[in-house]
Amino acid sequence: AASACIDHVKNFLKKTPEGEWFSAAVASDGNPYDVPSGLIFSFPVRSIGNGEYEIVSGLDLSDYARGKIGETAKELLQERDIVKDLLVK
What we know:
There is one protein chain. By secondary structure, this protein is α+β, with helices and mostly antiparallel strands. The protein contains two helices and three strands. Strand 2 and strand 3 form a beta hairpin. The longest helix is centred in the last third of the chain and has 21 residues, at 63-83.
């Protein structure tokens, strides 16, 4: 498990080859998957290098996949609302 974590960090430090991507939990910028901005969510991302990244857009998702993304986002928002009083402002 530790080597998987190290590999994940390495993915962010080196530039992702053209046409490739990896999944990572990052803050949503609101696009392109209609996940509310600021919500931490697993997205397909591409490393620009030096720890910078971009969320991959243009993937052909089925209606089923889009529905599951919407359901998951809704659940995460509900969980965030439950603990919002505990969050540092």
